[in-house]
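Progress note, project year one: complex with 0PR.
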Amino acid sequence: MGLEEEILDSLEKYMSTDVYYEEGRVLSSTCTNPHPFALRVFRRFQLANLGDPGLFPGAKLLEKQALRIIGELFHHPHLEQDHQIGHFVTGGTEANLTALWTARNRWLAASKTRDRSKATIVAAESAHLSIEKTANMLNVSLLKVPVTEDHVFDVDWMMEHVDPRNVVAIVATAGTTLLGAIDPIRELSEYSADNDVWLHVDAAIGGFILPFYPLLGRGEVLFDFQLEGVRSITADVHKMGMCPVPGGTVVFRDPEDLKHITFYLPYLLPEARVQSTMTGTRTAGAAIAFHALYQLLGREGFASTVKECLENTNVLKEQMIQKGLNPVIEPPMNILGFQPVTENTKRILKRLHDRRWRISEVKGILRFVLMPHVKRHHLISFLVDWDECSD
Ligand code: 0PR
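Model obtained:
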């Protein structure tokens, strides 16, 4: 065996402890196996660097077009202009950071007399951890708003406790990490528009689910730029966008807002001298993969994947109810939370883990995420295993 083979072999040994999506046993992750065509395109173009459009103008143009596809899905109001409406970034964390960094700088620029020590980001307790990290990095306070009994942002509580003058941004989530709950974005939008407050929507999960609901005969869920207070949206292509990691996006209602995070690098080729992203060097792989995948599948293709995930969610929900577990909320998308998690449930989970099933249990809630890699036959073997692992 040559040295390269030997090294590869030793790496395989480490990697064999990992559980891959295609086994169908990962029920805990909002990521999934990328679509084979997206993977093929990603591999072909992953070396193109979006951080240097002087060298890679083709990749930059494809990124811009891919963002415009997303803009269409999210009813962006100014697509007739030839703007770059946002960025492809590494994932939801960087997308949220980019949006809130922009909002913070705009807030600071809006009035020199503002008391910087009072700058606050407002988000529900159910918001993703990346919001807390962002507030920490931006050195602004984070006001955590309680959730209602439906597990969504309590708007009334916020109105009683917040002075809008100090609010850098409000964060609403369209598909919370734990339950897939959708915050009352319409009400938050009204408040934001009335008070000139930035509303950011974290649709890292829901961004490639909710736009397809009307095609599936489900009622439209308003979460995007149709709501006038919404200024920025995060949506991850490495989640339901079915592209390889790393792939997140952030899009802005008014791309002019990006001036608040624009920096200049005098030493690069002229096209690359302006940057409004946190990272410089970064792969164009996911942007081009998403561009290609959307051409291949279209709205209908994405919708049919969403449909399959939602049907599987429903099947699992009904079966788990029969096993004595109760859904915490009626699932608005492909995430299911159950209670109660008894000692008995914990024993079952441990045994299922030994059979390579990956399921998360958070804050007393048993959580399942039904991503495209989970097929109906996987669910059937899961239910058989559950019964076998029960006393
Ligand atoms: N916003 C929301 C609503 C999210 O759920 C997540 C990630 C993010 C932002 C951050 O996205 P990135 O992880 O892309 O930066 N939610 C997943 C979670 O915390 C992340 C994840 C994905 C964890 C796959 C594990 C895993 O196997 O569950």
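The chain has a mean pLDDT of 96.
Residues 60 and 90 are 16 Å apart (CA to CA).
No further modelling is planned for this target in the current period.
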